[in-house]
Amino acid sequence: MARIVMKFGGTSMAGTERIRRVARIVQRQQAAGHEVAVVVSAMAGETDRLVNFCREANPLYDPAEYDVVVASGEQVTSGLLAMHLQALGCKARSWLGWQVPIKTDDAHAKARIEDIDADALMASMASGEIAVIPGFQGVAPTGRVTTLGRGGSDTSAVAVAAAVKADRCDIYTDVDGVYTTDPRIVAKARKLKNVTYEEMLELASVGSKVLQTRSVSLAMKERVRVQVLSSFIDDDAPAADTIPGTMIVSDEELEGLDMERQLITGIAADKNEAKITLTRIADRPGAVAAIFGPLAAANINVDMIIQNIAKDRGETDVTFTVPISDLARTQALLEERKDTIGYYRMLANSKVAKITVVGVGMRSHAGVAATMFRALADRGINIQAITTSEIKVSVLIDEDETELAVRVLHTAYEMDGE
Amino acid sequence: MARIVMKFGGTSMAGTERIRRVARIVQRQQAAGHEVAVVVSAMAGETDRLVNFCREANPLYDPAEYDVVVASGEQVTSGLLAMHLQALGCKARSWLGWQVPIKTDDAHAKARIEDIDADALMASMASGEIAVIPGFQGVAPTGRVTTLGRGGSDTSAVAVAAAVKADRCDIYTDVDGVYTTDPRIVAKARKLKNVTYEEMLELASVGSKVLQTRSVSLAMKERVRVQVLSSFIDDDAPAADTIPGTMIVSDEELEGLDMERQLITGIAADKNEAKITLTRIADRPGAVAAIFGPLAAANINVDMIIQNIAKDRGETDVTFTVPISDLARTQALLEERKDTIGYYRMLANSKVAKITVVGVGMRSHAGVAATMFRALADRGINIQAITTSEIKVSVLIDEDETELAVRVLHTAYEMDGE
Q1: Are A137 and A102 in contact (CB under 8 A)?
Q2: Which comes out higher in pLDDT, residue A391 or B253?
Q3: Cβ-based contacts of B86 with chain A (< 8 Å)
């Protein structure tokens, strides 16, 4: 007997028939003797519908009210899944974020989980009741509803798994594992049997839709065993967890599992960043802080930063990227502070894409970046910005060249499967 | 300066443009110097959509999970209206049922409000912040979400008005007041300037869509001044509260206001009842209790009851009505208890309508019922059941004859306007 947290995404929850199928997958785990908690997303498309209402209400909406509106999507699916489980004869009940409670900070629309009081939850699970928990939501110290930001349901699942000391956190998605890259872009993409927390972290942070960044980072910190697997299995198929997905493991485990690993594990493309350039900023101490201080205070995540120094004028252009969802707020904040920062013009471009190659092997190998730049240059793809870490290299390119760049790199690193 | 609770229904909240219009109506009240709380319904159609998901999940759904699902509709509109008000420059925030808190009993899907802790709400309103409260929802002693049953948002509004000691509770609807009957059925229906709590109670309880029964009964008990008025006014029109709607007043007030009132105030039709007949029940003490005890325990409201006694057999047929929404549950409950109750067959018919004529004048006049029966008989309309109270007479007829019956009675009581 094990204690398992299962998580189902929006595609798996889209409508009565799909929720019924999820209920059967969950029932099977319970029938196998496990204690089960399930974390669910909103129905596919629902969060977008709700976000759209918020934007129409007020483009600079109050994130606390935004949370009230968008948290409703997961509330609905958690209640419905509990009903479907009951229809199958299982004991089940929903636990809203504030009921568990899942305590977060008060950074509305991108809150962080601070603590989960899992006593009531564990007592319920121990009594044979399946706990159904809406992902993505929590409650602030103020008692108001918070959400964790888009894709936060994965984070909820891992946090719940850590809190109830689960043996495994199974993330059911519309893919059957983690691939070397998006199989819709590269037909020869291969499924990975294992990937390390750090690799998954880099892949998630740069647009791989499989898992959300924070969930991976939390899993790494809390040492939660995470498995990615498909929710689209036949009813007659063996239990889902007997079909191998991708296990996310630590570096040490990986060495035991997979000696013959390739240099590069995966390639991801991210179209959700926008590029902002502030021109002719005085090249003096404090100028950059005047830009990024207020953005940090507003919880806007700045990713790539490039500064072009024109020594002769004592001025500089600063280019950086922010999530597209924060673009309007970023522009408003910087417009307000135009005089304080002292820039000449603000240029924004959301038609960019970030391409990232990831691999733990990179640490001990030279030439990864060189291969990347050469392969892209050979196809005339212009690199607008670069960032690197120990296990990844990212470049910013024109959005129109995304698919081409991914294919070129998949071949250049000899990752193409059969 | 007054303290006002305003309530807007689903049609007024259906989509961005309509919510924006509601925000302007609310803003105008605040600009006039009033302290304002707003109670909102879900967008028109949303609750039906959610209820449908519940029915698909499990026809005999768990009402506690049903509440989790359907309460989301009002949660969404309360957040959105707060945003729209903020966009107009007003201070505003949403207060979910459990946040106020609006404490109810634990009769899920038809909970009753037991207490509203209005301190935080009143402090917020006194500070110039508009409180936006989702109607229809509360929180049970167990800490779980409850709903008040369909149309419960009116009840929420009156309860909030009582709790914050409001000077007035303005119920904005898609009609501009209370009419002698549904103007869509009878073109010559007239708008009433005043109607008593008791009359409104009878009209509401028998299908007038203007106000929900419990809201009127609560207003009567708490002496909340309620006004029904239209939310569909032009932006350029004078403030909505200067256009006369219908005021709901006590008997004593009415006597001062309207000496020349007609005998019958209104006629309502209700198609939301279903008729159940249990045949050949033993005519012995306790037999009826065996039927209605379990229904009461399951919070199913039985309305009309008729017992046909066949003395020769020592058996009886019992016919009664329940809300259509409870029909499946009622049938399941009675099926389970077939042996205990000892009936022969259970017959159900949801194609019935209840027609009710209401008037405080009825107390001092004979002949109201006689006029009714004669007028219906003249048109060949068969009466299946009858109930009366001091100020009303109700008859159950075939659903197909609803509109005909209402028109015939409106004319028979000389209520037709110009």
Answers
A1: yes
A2: A391
A3: 58, 61-62, 65
Best of A56, A90, A146 to substitute, by most chain B Cβ atoms within 10 angstroms, is: A56
Task: Express each pLDDT in A361-392 by its tens digit.
Answer: 776 666 788 889 899 999 999 998 888 888 88
CATH number of A262-418: 3.30.2130.10
Residues 6+ apart with CB under 8 A from A171: A7, A154, A157, A211, A215, A226, A227, A228, A229
DSSP state of B183: T
DSSP state of A13: T
> Cβ–Cβ of A79/B65 closer than 8 Å?
yes
The answer to whether A66 contacts B78, with C-beta atoms less than 8 Å apart, is no
Q: Which of A31, A143, A169 is nearest to A89 (CA)?
A: A31
The residue among A82 and B230 whose pLDDT is bigger is A82
Say yes or no to pLDDT of A49 above 90: yes
Using CA atoms, how far apart are residues B213 and B203, in angstroms rounded to an integer?
8
Q: Whole-angstrom Cα distance, residue B102 to residue B114?
A: 8
Residues in contact with A258: Cβ distance below 8 Å, sequence separation at least 6, in sequence order = A193, A194
Residues near A364 by Cβ (< 8 Å), separated by ≥ 6? none
Residues of chain B neighbouring A94 (CB-CB closer than 8 A) = 65, 68
pLDDT tens-digit series, residues A160-185: 999 999 999 999 987 788 889 988 88
Determine whether the interchain pair B65/A80 forms a contact, defined as Cβ–Cβ distance below 8 Å: yes
Span B81-90, average pLDDT: 98
Q: Write down the pTM of the prediction.
A: 0.76
Strands (E), A140-222: 145-147, 168-173, 178-179, 191-192, 194-196
Task: Give percent above pLDDT 70 in chain B.
Answer: 92
Instruction: Give the number of other Cβ atoms within 10 Å of residue A227's Cβ.
Output: 19
Q: State the residue for tokens 């019924």.
A: A20
CATH 3.40.1160.10 is the classification of domain A3-257: yes
Torsion of CA B209, B211, B213, B218, to 10 degrees: 180
What residue of B is the nearest CA neighbor of A142?
B99
Q: With 70 as the cut, is the pLDDT of residue B287 above it?
A: yes
Q: How far is CA A356 from the centre of its chain?
A: 15
SS3 content of chain A, % helix, strand, coil (to 5): 40, 25, 35
Say yes or no to pLDDT of B205 above 90: no
* Residue contacts between A and B (CB atoms, under 8 Å): 111
Integer Cα distance of B54 and A54 in angstroms: 26
Kindly tell me if the per-residue pLDDT of B213 is higher than 90.
no
Query: Residue B298: which of B332, B348, B258 has the closest Cα?
Result: B332
Total Cβ atoms within 10 A of residue A347: 11
**Domain limits, chain A:** 3-257, 262-418
Summarised one tens digit per residue, pLDDT across range A213-224 is: 788 889 999 999
Instruction: Calculate the CA B144 to chain-centre distance.
Output: 24
Nearest to A69 among B69, B79, B145 (CB): B79
Q: Do A57 and B145 touch (CB under 8 A)?
A: no
How many CA within 13 A on the CB side of residue A203?
25
Secondary structure class of A199 (helix, strand, coil): helix
* Same fold across B3-257 and B262-418: no
Q: Which of A68, A119, A121, A146 to mutate to test the interface with B (most CBs of B within 10 A)?
A: A68
Residues of A in contact with B66 (CB under 8 A): 79, 83
Asked if the Cβ–Cβ distance from A58 to B82 is below 8 Å, we say: no
Peptide bond into A101 cis (omega under 30): yes
- Measure B62 CA to nearest chain A CA, in Å: 7
Q: What is the pLDDT of residues A225-280, one digit of tens each?
A: 999 998 765 555 555 455 678 989 888 887 776 655 677 899 999 999 999 999 99
Chain B neighbors of A71, CB-CB under 8 A: 75
